[in-house]
Amino acid sequence: MPSISQTLESFVTNAMQLAGIPEGTPAVIKPSNRPEFGDYQINGIMGAAKKMRTNPRVLAEQVVKHLQLTMATRIEIAGPGFINIYLSPEWIAQQVTEKLSSASLIEATAEPQTIVVDYSGPNLAKEMHVGHLRSTIIGDAFARVLSAQGHHVIRQNHVGDWGTQFGMLIAHMLDQDNNDLALQLADLEQFYREAKVRFDEEPAFAEAARHYVVKLQAGDEQCLSHWQQFIDISLQHCEAVYQTLNVLLTRDNVQPESAYNEQLPVIVSDLDKVGLLSESEGAQCVFLDEFMGKNNTPLPTIVQKSDGGYLYATTDLAALRYRQETLKTDRIVYFVDARQNLHLKQVFAIAKKAQFVAEETRLEHMAFGTMMDKSGRPFKTRTGGTTKLIELLEEAQQRAFDVVSEKNPDIDEAERLAIGKIVGISAVKYADLSKNRTTDYIFDWDAMLSFEGNTAPYLQYAYTRIRSIFRKAGKIDHHKVVITEPSEHQLALQLLQFNTAVDHVAKDGVPHYLCNYLFELAGNFMTFYEACPILKAEPNTQSSRLQLAQLTANTLATGLKLLGINTMERM
User: Fold this and answer.
1) Pick from 81, 147, 92: which is nearest to 115 by CA?
2) Which of these, 162, 156, 123, 151, lies nearest to 326 by C-alpha position?
3) Strand 331-334 vs strand 362-365: parallel, antiparallel, or unpaired?
C-alpha cells in the first residue's frame, strides 16, 4: 500500500504536465503539519514558475485546474503559489482500515536490490568499547529497514584480526600458564595492555613478537592455532555484546581482514596493470587528481609499503572487489566514523577507476560523529581510559532496574529485572539513534532513562498504555472506522505517513527520522486519547477508536523493532 505522498505524487505530476510545466520537474509534496494549511502541501510551483518566467499563482491555478483528486474535500491556493490539499475523512478512514488488514505495515520495494552493509568492525585484539556503539546500532537499524522493505541485505562485519598486534599477543600468550590462559583471556583489554607494555619495554619480547608476525603471515601451523584460539575468544566477547544490544550480527556475518590476505598482492599487481600505480619513496601508491593536498600536490593512497607490507587501503580494495564480484551487490554502504571520510573517498574512487567495482554500483560512506560526555569530551572512564561497551550496557540495565523499581515496586523482582534489561539497553540505543548520525552527541543517563521526551522509555510506556486499553476493553468488534474529530484526523494522517519515515532511513541511513516520527505519533495518540474517550464511547465509536489505537500500537511496535528495540506489555 503506497504512502499518501506517493499516491498524491502521481496525480500532481500529471496535473503539472497538463499545466505546461516541463517534464521531470519534481512535485514537492509534504505534510503541512498545520491544519490551517490543509493536510498536504504542494510547494514546488514557485521554483517551476521562476524557470518558466511566469506568475507562480497563475501557474498554481493551472495545476489545480487539472488536479483530479477524488480523495480531497477541497484544494486551495495560498500565498504566492502554495497548494493546500484537504483530504476526505472517509478516504483517510478507508486507508486506516486497509492498513489494519495488511500483512505488513512496511511497503515492499518495487525494485529489490542486493545491498552490502558494512558495520561494527571491531578490532579483535581488544574488547569492544563505546567507540563501536554507533557503527553497530546505526548499521543494524539500517540493515533491518532494508530487509523489511524486501531488499537482499548482506551484513559484513569487517573485523580487524591481522597485523603486528597479533604477533605481540601470541608471544604473550605463549608465556602464560596454559591452565590459566582462558581465565586471563576473559579480560581481553587487560591481556592486550600487558602485552603492549612488554612490547614497549622488553626488547627481547618485541623481537619475539615480530618473529611471530612473520611466522603467522607465512602460515605457520602453531602460530595459526594460537591466533585462532585468540580470535575465537575475541569473537565470543563480541557476540555477547551483540546479543545484549539485540543486534542481528552473527559469526556468519564476519568477513575479517585476514580473508583478503591472498588477494593483496593481486590488488597491487592489477592496479599496476591498469596504470594507476606509482612508486614514491619505495612505496607503491595511487595518485588521483581529485585528491589534492597542500601546495596543490596530489595526495597518495599507499597500497604497499616500502618493506612490502600492505595497508588498510589494500584490504579495503580487496573487500570491495569481493563484494562486487562474489556477492554481486548493487549498493555498498559503510557505517564508519567521520574521520575515515577521506580514506574511503580515495578507496571508492580507486575501485571505480580500476574497475574492481561496476560504475553503476553505489558506494556510500554513512559517517557518524562522536559520543561525548557532559563536559563535551569523548566518552571515557573516570580514570581516562576507554569504556568497555559491555560494562556500559551492564550499567544501563542496573540504572533502568532502579528506575523501574522506584516507579513500580509492587512488580515481582524477576519481572523488574527483565523490564530493566529491555529498558536500559533500549534507552542507550535510542538516545544514539534519535540523534542525527552526522553530529556529535552528549551521553546523559538521566535524559535517556527519562519517561518524558523523545526517549525509548517514553515510547515503550506509550505502547504499554495502549495495550492496557485493550486489556480493559476486551474483544474488539470491527465496525467501520469513522473519523469525525480533529484529533482522530491528525492521528490517522500520522499513521499513514509511517512508510515515508521508513523510506528516509532506507535512502539516507538516518534512523533519527524514524525516531522523530514515532515520538510525534506517540504525542498525537496522547492528544487523541485525551480528546476522544474510548472505553466510555458508544459501541460503534468505541470500535472505531480502538482500531485507531490498534494501528498506533502496531506502528509503534513495528517502528521500534526496525530500530532493534523491544516492547513490553507493561512497565
Assistant:
1) 147
2) 156
3) parallel
Distance CA 154, CA 331 (A): 10
Cell numbers at 258, concatenated = 585476514
Owner of C-alpha cell 599487481: 269
Task: Yes or no: say if 223 and 125 are a contact pair by the CB < 8 Å rule.
Answer: no
Q: Give residue for cell 523493532.
A: 561
Interhelix angle 164-174/221-245, nearest 10 degrees: 100
CA atoms of 311 and 323, how far apart (whole Å): 19
3-state secondary structure at position 441: strand
Report the pLDDT value the prediction gives residue 174, as an integer from 0 to 100. Answer: 85
Which alpha helices (H) appear in 67-163, and where do they start and end?
A: 89-101, 133-148
Alpha carbons 436 and 456: distance in angstroms, whole number: 16
300: number of CA atoms within 13 Å, CB side? 14
Query: 227 to each of 145, 187, 250, how far by Cα in Å?
Result: 36, 17, 20
Task: Report d(CA 464, CA 569) in Å as an integer.
Answer: 5
Distance CA 323, CA 318 (A): 9
SS3 content of the chain, % helix, strand, coil (to 5): 55, 10, 30
Cell of 278: 606509482
Q: Please list the alpha-helical segments (H only) found in 334-412.
A: 341-353, 389-407
Q: To 10 degrees, the CA torsion angle through 354, 357, 358, 359?
A: -70
Q: What are the b/e assignments for 20-48, b being 16+ CB within 10 Å?
A: ebeeebebebebbeeeebbbbbbbbbbeb
Please tell me the least confidently modeled range out of 106-120, 157-171, 383-397.
383-397
Count of CB atoms situated within 10 Å of the CB of 438: 13
Domains of the chain, with CATH numbers? 4-87 (3.30.1360.70), 164-250 (no CATH)
Please give the backbone phi and psi of residue 441, each rounded to the nearest 5 degrees, phi first. Answer: -145, 155
- Please give the angle made by the CA atoms of 119, 122 and 123, to the nearest 5 degrees: 145
pLDDT in tens, 380-390: 655 556 788 99
Is residue 424 within 8 Å of 401, Cβ to Cβ? Answer: yes
Report in angstroms the alpha-carbon separations of 369 from 48, 332, 342, 536: 37, 20, 15, 49
What's the pLDDT band for 475 if we cut at 50, 70, 90? confident
DSSP string, 539-564: HHHHHHHHHHHHHHHHHHHHHHHHTT
End-to-end CA separation in angstroms for the chain: 33
> Which cell numbers in the block locate residue 166?
597479533
3-state secondary structure 97-118: HHHHHCCCCCCCCCCCCEEEEE
By CB atoms closer than 10 A (0-12, 13-18, 19+), residue 18 is middle
**Residues sharing a CB contact under 8 Å with residue 3, sequence separation 6 or more, in sequence order:** 107, 496, 497, 498, 499, 500, 503
How does DSSP classify residue 512? Answer: H
Confidence tier at 219 by pLDDT (50, 70, 90): confident
pLDDT grade for 181, boundaries at 50, 70 and 90: low
